């Protein structure tokens, strides 16, 4: 790959990372890229009328997305060529009740999601991002909308305790995630002075269809969340605080992803696990279906599946352990011929690559890697192995993957892990 082309891909990856502070944003960015590449969105709630040579995608919960391109020579029962990755990363997610007030401070209640390095969240410039459900009334018609939100500027921080109050902190630092990992939003005095909305709330908008008026809803939200936080969210979305029905938000670092290092060879970023593979698999699918002739000789279906909730076991309705993929394979197959036997035939003819990040050898912790299986930077793609079947790799799948890599002049290295007790996939 030419230097200019490499720089273009890396720059595109960094743009993808910066556009994706949450799984919801990652899927939204993926949708934009797929639409620009000629992919058509379809709904799992409706009948599918698929055609050979066409490209489609669908989402689940706005945090999982599946995209596929049907070869022009495809017939029902042919195989699927799938790359799977995940959109979520360890994070601090806001609790259902975030309102915490202690000794004159307004804090935001959060809970840990996934297996994160929680000590690294201290002393960072944090904001919030995710999705908000809002109520909208137009011409006596009431509707509820899903809106993405991201407050760009830092609005909170998790400060560490001064060393003067804990002289042993450098010898033994243990994070109490319940008590110590609570972001500070403001002081109660400053928040009171800066109130934007009057205490009696916004003007009522009439009947809301559920027996509660606007002021009652505002009061209910104020019991669960600080008014200041609600006002920040409403201002960002362009609605009134009382129109916010619920949300799924998480704390995010405001420091952007970037290319760095003395030789500009590193990407400094959070969420590389696994937005990097989400980006690569998505780009591969788009690039491989970009021309008019891309699918002319294709007999199968090219597919990418980016799942949510891998970090917590993949067992949710939109996780890799859900029926999302199996249902998709079934509906695609049956769109051409309704025969239950063809699905099993198609699965046996398919190949799936689970694309996740591998941990390169750390120069300061070399003993944490298995001898003779130490992935190195610049060493190429990593094939993961585990004798206890925490990975699905076997001799056949490894061989096929290596043959494909050899055909395209891609270097390969292998990894065997000492411990995978905390892995869910």
What does this structure look like?
Its cofactor is Zn(2+). It comes from Quillaja saponaria. The chain is an alpha/beta fold and 425 residues long. It has helices at 3-18, 23-36, 188-193, 214-224, 227-237, 272-287, 324-334, 340-348, 395-407; strands at residues 40-41, 55-60, 64-70, 80-86, 91-102, 105-113, 126-138, 141-150, 184-187, 244-253, 258-260, 266-268, 301-307, 351-354, 381-385, 412-416. The strands form 4 sheets. The chain has a 6-stranded mixed beta sheet with strand order 1-2-3-13-4-14, with helices on both faces. A 6-stranded antiparallel beta sheet has the order 8-7-10-5-6-9. Mean pLDDT is 90; it is low at 196-211 and 419-425.
Helix-strand pattern, N to C?
HHEEEEEEEEEHHHEEEHEHHEEHE
Shape: globular
Give the neighbour order of strands across the main sheet.
1-2-3-13-4-14
Rg calc: 24 Å
Low-confidence stretches: 196-211, 419-425
Number of helices: 9
Sheet with the most strands?
6 strands, mixed
User: What's the end-to-end separation, in Å?
Assistant: 32 Å
Percentage of residues in strands: 25-35%
What level of helicity do the residues show? 25-40%
Instruction: Round the mean pLDDT to the nearest integer and report it.
Output: 90
Number of strands: 16
- Structural class per helix/strand content? alpha/beta
């Amino acid at each position: 790959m030419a230097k200019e082309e490499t720089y273009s891909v890396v720059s595109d990856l960094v743009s993808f990372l910066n556009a994706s502070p949450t799984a919801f944003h990652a899927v939204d960015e993926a949708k934009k890229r797929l639409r620009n590449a000629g992919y058509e969105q379809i709904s799992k709630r409706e009948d599918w009328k698929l055609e050979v040579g066409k490209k489609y995608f669908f989402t689940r919960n706005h945090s999982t997305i599946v995209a596929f391109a049907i070869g022009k020579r495809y017939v029902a029962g042919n195989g699927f060529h799938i790359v799977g990755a995940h959109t979520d990363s360890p994070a601090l997610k806001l609790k259902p009740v975030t309102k915490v007030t202690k000794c004159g401070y307004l804090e935001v209640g959060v809970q840990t999601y996934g297996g994160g390095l929680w000590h690294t969240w201290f002393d960072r410039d944090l904001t919030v991002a995710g999705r908000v459900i809002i109520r909208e009334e137009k011409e006596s018609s009431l509707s509820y909308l899903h809106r993405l939100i991201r407050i760009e500027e830092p609005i909170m921080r998790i400060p560490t305790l001064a060393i003067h109050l804990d002289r042993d902190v450098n010898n033994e630092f243990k994070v109490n995630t319940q008590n110590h990992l609570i972001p500070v939003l403001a002081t109660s005095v400053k928040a009171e002075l800066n109130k934007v909305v009057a205490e009696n709330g916004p003007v009522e908008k009439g009947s809301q269809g559920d027996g509660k008026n606007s002021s009652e809803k505002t009061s209910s939200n104020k019991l669960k969340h600080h008014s200041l936080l609600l006002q920040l969210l409403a201002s960002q979305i362009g609605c009134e605080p009382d129109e916010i029905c619920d949300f799924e938000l998480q704390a995010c670092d405001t420091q952007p992803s970037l290319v760095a290092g003395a030789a500009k060879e590193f990407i400094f970023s959070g969420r590389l696990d696994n937005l990097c593979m989400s980006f690569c698999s998505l780009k591969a699918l788009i690039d491989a279906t970009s021309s008019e002739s891309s699918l002319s000789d294709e007999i199968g279906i090219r597919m990418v599946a980016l799942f949510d909730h891998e970090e917590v076991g993949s067992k949710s309705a939109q996780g890799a352990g859900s029926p999302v993929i199996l249902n998709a394979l079934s509906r695609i197959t049956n769109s051409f011929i309704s025969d239950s036997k063809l699905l099993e035939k198609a699965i046996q003819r398919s190949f799936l690559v689970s694309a996740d990040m591998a941990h390169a050898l750390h120069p300061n912790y070399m003993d944490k890697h298995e001898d003779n299986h130490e992935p190195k930077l610049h060493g190429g793609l990593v094939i993961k192995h585990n004798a206890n079947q925490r990975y699905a790799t076997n001799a056949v799948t490894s061989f096929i993957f290596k043959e494909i890599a050899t055909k395209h002049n891609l270097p390969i290295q292998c990894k065997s892990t000492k411990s995978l007790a905390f892995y869910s996939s």
